Amino acid sequence: MNKMLKMNHRDREILLSTPLMSGLNPALGRRVMESAAVFGAEAKDVLFREGAEAENFYVVLSGYVRLFRLSREGREADIGVYGPGETFGECAMFLGCKYSFNAQAAEPVTLARFDVAKIRQIMTEEPEFSMALMGVLAHHLHDARENVANDRLHTAPQRVANYLLEMLQHSGAGNSNSFRLPFQKSLLAGKLGLAPEALSRAFSMLKTSGVSIRGRMVQITDAEALRRI
Amino acid sequence: MNKMLKMNHRDREILLSTPLMSGLNPALGRRVMESAAVFGAEAKDVLFREGAEAENFYVVLSGYVRLFRLSREGREADIGVYGPGETFGECAMFLGCKYSFNAQAAEPVTLARFDVAKIRQIMTEEPEFSMALMGVLAHHLHDARENVANDRLHTAPQRVANYLLEMLQHSGAGNSNSFRLPFQKSLLAGKLGLAPEALSRAFSMLKTSGVSIRGRMVQITDAEALRRI
DNA sequence: CGGCTCTTTGAGAGTGCTCAATGTACGTGG
DNA sequence: CCACGTACATTGAGCACTCTCAAAGAGCCG
Predict the structure, then answer these.
(1) CA→C1' distance for B152 and C4 (Å)
(2) Which nucleotides of chain D are near protein (any atom < 7 Å from a CB)?
(3) What is the dihedral of CA B100, B106, B111, B117, to 10 degrees?
(4) Is the shortest CB-to-strand distance from A162 to strand D under 7 Å?
């Protein structure tokens, strides 16, 4: 658990193509990279807990990470799921340096860990980096609000249909009509604010709208019908 | 509607004590202020629509503003409610300069409107301002995620109890056990993701936990009982 | 006092959760 | 290579919750 790794060429490449870093000039990119260290974690490893002192934020290099909050009775609610190229935990820098949620590896992952103190210094000197980070924050904000609206406006089958259509866009650029779910169904259920059973039932309802599922493979024969759900 | 006003001393004072501006050095504060104009709007006036070109963001000087999204069938879901001293619409600057939600005055309001182009210029030159804006973004992000978790973890009476306890903190610093709701109950219902009827029922359930309501006045006789809900 | 809006109350239906049991996939070890 | 075990996924039944629709009540401003 939390095994330190040497940053290899591939890690570096992924980091540089991240929304956080892709726009930076080469010198600045190198400087930011120097405040990062790469490590691996196993499925279910806790990366940090709500309330803990935030000395780092993270970028996912491979695998998926789950952010969630706990109720007093111990029930969990997912707040977001982040995959390769995405940043998480950065908001704690501006919220009293305390994490406001829990983070857990949903599967074996490799992560880049950034040092908050060093990054904060960079921000005071390099507006270019601040702009990039604001972009990330704004994007996360947009996602979170979209989640709120989605939960409040749409039923389970509608949320699932939306998700499938979104995935269809992002994979194969629209020419293909099938793709692979990027992670476990139970994780997807959490991301959509559903119990696993509800996701399962939603999938079986969508069969009548031209969706077929085998394992993680999804095939969509009638995207129009999905949009009408 | 959208009546332009001259910025008076009081407006200036409120703006300067805002999270967005309170930390800035005087010269920078003046410069930021110069990119703003004050105006008033009536209840239900639309300030901007989802998808519209974002040339401004706003700070509330008085009254409350409602942010919401629309479903295809025309149902509305509130994403946030912002009051005096709070910023909204700033995220659009980083999302292709398109607003991603609708904004509407919930009552007569006065607002400061900031010019995005000028502010963007300031950001490239003044890291101090960027830091402040990142603080605002991070805070909004935190609120939005808290909303998601709240919706998914808590029932209507629990959400209302949470809200009342929060309000009790923020008003009177804890020595008083009563306060006034800052806006209409129907707006509060929307903010909490409830139909007005559900809010009403939640209030009447909370009567047995030492909450009494008359109009907008709330009295809490047993805060401990509320916490246990 | 009358008219309007906001709020409350009631009844009914839809939606998703919990719990429990069965099915299925995958990885391990015999 | 097959048998087994474990974790994941599906299915069913019952229940809790909140929405919708409809009507009655309260507050506010003219």
Answers:
(1) 37
(2) 8-13, 17-22, 27-28
(3) 10
(4) no
Give the residue from A134, A159, A165, A226 with the most B CB atoms within 10 Å of its CB, the best one to mutate: A134
Do B33 and B122 fall into the same domain? yes
Predicted pLDDT of residue A103 = 97
Query: Structurally, how many domains does chain B consist of?
Result: 2
Q: Which domain holds residue A127?
A: 3-153
Asked whether residue A108, judged by its CB, lies under 7 Å from any atom of the DNA or RNA strand D, the reply is no
DSSP per position, A15-78? HHTSTTTTTS-HHHHHHHHHTEEEEEE-TT-EEE-TTSB--EEEEEEES-EEEEEE-TTS-EEE
A161 shares its domain with A213: yes
Same domain as B160, residue B147: no
- Quote the tokens at residue A72: 């007093």
**B84 and B196 part of one domain:** no
Are A161 and A219 contained in the same domain? yes
Q: Judge whether residue B174 has pLDDT over 60.
A: no
Residue contact B151–A95, C-beta within 8 A: no
How far apart, in whole angstroms, are the C-alpha atoms of residue B79 and residue B77?
6
Q: Which B residues 178-197 touch A at CB under 8 Å?
A: 193
What distances in angstroms separate CA B48 from CA A115, A152, B115, one per listed residue? 39, 21, 14
Domain boundary among B130, B153, B176: B153
| CATH at A167 | 1.10.10.10
Kindly state whether residues B95 and B23 are assigned to the same domain: yes
Q: A145–B80: do the CB atoms touch at under 8 Å?
A: yes
Model confidence over A151-197: pLDDT tens digits? 999 999 999 999 999 999 887 655 788 999 999 999 999 999 999 99
Tens-digit pLDDT profile for residues B14-26? 999 999 999 999 9
- Which chain B residues are closer than 8 Å to A152 by Cβ? 77-78, 151, 193
